[in-house]
Amino acid sequence: MLGRKLAVGLGAGSCIALVGNLGAGKTALVRGLADGLGAEVQMVSSPTYVLVQEYPARDTTLFHLDLYRMADAEAELEELGMEEMLAGGVVVIEWADRACDALPLGRTEIVIDITGENTRRFTARTIA
Fold it and tell me: What is the percent of the chain with per-residue pLDDT over 90, rounded to a whole number?
């Protein structure tokens, strides 16, 4: 539900940086964003081993990145073509805190804290 609401108004150049522990719900939030953008939600999975997943959506493309296994996330983001992804769609990055200096200004950072077995607290801010 939250992801669908956040998707309103997102388009090419939008960057969402997700921060949270394992099991916090980062990929679940991406599924909501995908749904809100009109992408195939069933296709959304954590890109931990492939680094980036690409999902065609209604008016844009959703690029879903995971920095968890990257040794030098800042350098690898450049190699993956972060600027090109931003020019062509919405970029959502899990484990974004591993490459803060390489992420674009104007991004939305969402921190997900586990507050109980089935509860989460979401804190969002724009990094300008």
Answer: 72
